[in-house]
Design a protein that fits this description.
This protein has about 290 residues and is α/β, with parallel strands linked by helices. It is about 35% helix and about 25% strand. It has 10 helices and 13 strands. The strands form 4 sheets. It has a 5-stranded mixed beta sheet. The protein has a 4-stranded mixed beta sheet with strand order 8-12-7-11. Helix 1 crosses helix 2, helix 1 crosses helix 3 and helix 2 crosses helix 3. It is globular and about 65 Å long. The protein starts with a helix and ends with a helix.
């Protein structure tokens, strides 16, 4: 399967237009049509209807594979490019918002750093494809267990920190005075769904183990990356939020109640491309050493 043809097909399917895909990719519309036709001939299946432009059932199935395939190819190219690349004097770091805490920020070099906040599911891809030299990603896990990361490319993951978790709720909430809370007691509560700024509700449903993962209803969805905004929403009574205890403490108008069951921690990991281990010096290696010390 030619990746150039696959990339063209994905663009046409995403934009639902041969002409728009041609403009985006810098091809003529005729070339785009030829690419899609060649891919269909290779697979022996129609992938798109033409009027309207939409994936066929076979095309939908191919789209389920296409993103991972193209990303893996980009990661392979970036990994090989590192062999020929000259040592860099700068450092590009991609980080999920909750991975940015005093320990990780203190390890950054004083100069030459570009720090980008990304949704946690985009951080591994940024490191794998060379968009970032290093990544900081967070999530919830059992103590000492590694995070479950997508299998995009060979990535070296190192634990940076593990912190207790707390439920953030309004200071007037009936549970605000407790010394600890169980997740089972909050399944039917109304929650803030903030996949980039807080712990995603999908992770809570996964660890709860209730029937079909039910519970943890969304009261409000926040699509930003600012954890302070998420905390203010929780303090204002718009829903509960699960945060690392240090981030949950000290929020005006809110109470941070430690999570006591199940036994989970907020874990932060440093991600490096496997090839980055070969670098004995430079800002990437120095950043890794400072985080691991």
């Amino acid at each position: 399967m030619d990746p150039h043809l696959l990339r063209t097909y994905v663009a046409v399917a995403r934009l639902a237009s041969f002409s728009d895909a041609a403009r985006e990719l810098g091809y003529t519309q005729s070339a785009v049509s030829q690419h899609v036709a060649a891919l269909e001939a290779d697979l022996g299946l129609p992938l798109l209807t033409r009027r309207p432009v939409a994936p066929t059932p076979a095309g939908e199935r191919l789209l389920e594979h296409a993103g991972a395939l193209l990303l893996r190819l980009e990661a392979a190219r970036a990994d090989l490019d590192r062999f020929a690349a000259a040592p860099r004097a700068t450092l590009n770091v991609a980080a999920s918002p909750l991975a940015l805490h005093p320990r990780t920020l203190a390890a950054l070099p004083a100069t030459g750093v570009t720090l980008r906040a990304l949704p946690r599911d985009r951080v591994p891809a940024a490191v794998a494809t060379g968009e970032a030299d290093a990544g900081l990603v967070d999530g919830i896990a059992a103590p000492s267990d590694p995070l479950r990361l997508p299998d995009i490319a060979p990535l070296a993951a190192t634990r940076v920190a593990e912190e207790p978790l707390a439920v953030l709720l309004p200071a007037t909430h009936p549970l605000a005075g407790r010394t600890g809370v169980r997740l089972d007691d909050l399944v039917d509560a109304r929650w803030l769904d903030a996949p980039a700024a807080g712990v995603p509700l999908g992770e809570l449903r996964a660890v709860h183990g209730g029937p079909a993962g039910r519970g943890f209803r969304t009261a409000l969805r926040y699509e930003g990356t600012d954890t302070r905004t998420l905390a203010a929403l929780a303090a204002g009574g718009h829903g509960l939020a699960l945060l690392p205890l240090p981030a949950a403490c000290g929020v005006p108008g809110a109470a941070a109640v430690p999570l006591v069951a199940p036994r989970l921690v907020h874990r932060t990991e440093l991600l490096l491309a496997a090839g980055a281990r070969r670098e004995a010096a430079g800002p990437v290696a120095e950043f890794g050493r400072r985080l691991r010390s």
